[in-house]
Design the sequence.
């Protein structure tokens, strides 16, 4: 198994990995606005996982949904390495990864380019002084609003009750429609949505092994 530095070096060479640095935000990624034509080479919907970690969810969803495209975003290259290498070994052409800060996400995607956003166990940022860092704060919702298409979907999975309750209130106040919500996903799986519990992240396994309840909600951006 490569060490962290070796993973950083290798991930730079992967054909399914891209990097947006601080100084490149204004120009944006080369594929911005062209993900379907230049990388995926199809017109299938694009689903975005923010804070993807090791990419278990992006890769798992891609395997189950070959007619959809998936992009995982995380700031840690050694985390992305796991998902990127796995998708290459599995010959998955519908998965890509972007290494960047979520604050720079507008430099990665063009207006209406993304069909769905997944937030899988983001940092709950429980301190009141860090509420602006929550990925469901208006600062981030406004960013998503720029590239999520009208009628697009926003999913949240979390173990944090405080983040879940905050998100339900804040996203609704932002004007997006709540479609689904449960504070005990594994005992209340929405009909036809088995993939919500069949695909698990590293952190999700840790939480469920401790007996913690997983929360889930789904919102729709106005058409």
Sequence:
């Amino acid at each position: 198994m490569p060490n962290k530095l070796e993973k950083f070096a290798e991930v730079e060479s992967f054909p399914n990995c891209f990097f947006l640095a601080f100084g490149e935000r204004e120009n944006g990624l080369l594929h911005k606005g062209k993900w379907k034509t230049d990388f995926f080479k199809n017109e299938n919907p694009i689903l975005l996982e923010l804070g993807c970690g090791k990419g278990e969810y992006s890769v798992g969803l891609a395997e189950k949904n070959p007619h959809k495209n998936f992009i995982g975003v995380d700031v840690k290259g050694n985390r992305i390495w796991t998902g990127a290498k796995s998708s290459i070994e599995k010959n998955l052409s519908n998965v890509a990864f972007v290494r960047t800060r979520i604050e720079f996400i507008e430099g990665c995607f063009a207006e209406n380019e993304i069909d769905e956003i997944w937030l899988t166990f983001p940092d709950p940022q429980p301190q009141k002084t860090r509420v602006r860092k929550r990925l469901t704060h208006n600062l981030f919702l406004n960013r998503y609003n720029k590239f999520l298409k009208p009628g697009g979907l926003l999913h949240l999975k979390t173990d944090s009750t405080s983040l879940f309750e905050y998100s339900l209130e804040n996203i609704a106040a932002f004007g997006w429609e709540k479609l689904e919500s449960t504070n005990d996903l594994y005992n209340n799986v929405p009909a036809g949505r088995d993939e919500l519990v069949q695909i698990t992240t590293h952190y999700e396994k840790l939480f469920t092994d401790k007996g913690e309840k997983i929360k889930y909600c789904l919102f729709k951006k106005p058409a």
